[in-house]
Amino acid sequence: MILTSFGEVGLVWAWGKNAPSVVRIFLPVEYLTTKANIHLYFPGAIEGTHDIIDQFCSQILEYLCGAPVVFSLENINLSICREFQQKVLHQNMRVPRGFVSSYSLLSDKLSIPKGARAVGCALAGNPFPLIIPCHRIVRLNGTSGGYGGGLKMKIALLQMEGVAFDESGKINPRCFW
Question: What is the pTM of this model?
Answer without folding.
Answer: 0.90
